[in-house]
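Task 17 of the worksheet. Students: predict the tertiary structure of the chain below and write it out as structure tokens. Keep your answer in the requested format; marks are given for formatting as well as content.
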Amino acid sequence: RTVVDPSIRQFALMNLRESPSEGRWHWAIGLESILRQFNVLGSDELGLAPEEVKPFEGPAYFVQAGGSNYLHEKHLATIGLYFSRFQLETIQEAGHWVHITNPADLQRALGNFLSESATAVAEMASSAAAAVSAMPNQQNQ
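Model answer:
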């Protein structure tokens, strides 16, 4: 097989090691294990029935690369099962490894999300503190 994309090829080759005693090359990662479990790794199924799933209710941020086709429309429904308040941002001018191909736009996008999330969390904490303060004092009873 041939890996056409140079960045993917370079990434994969980082896991190739020479074994001088054996006179051959081998994969440093557990390639055999990955291949045995590939049907699970490449699946949308996690083995949970929808009623068993309790979605994360906090903010969740997903980034996709404009130049990558790894995230498809069909995945968004599955993501929504696990992250009810997820946001999806597309970083244009980026390949699959967004942090390598467009780090400036990724940093900007993450900074914006974290700032917005921090504000939302602070507002929730303030509301919770106000609710606790409004409760009758139970210490003397």
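Marker's comment: Helices lie at 6-13, 31-36, 38-41, 73-82, 98-101, 103-134. The longest strand covers residues 56-65.
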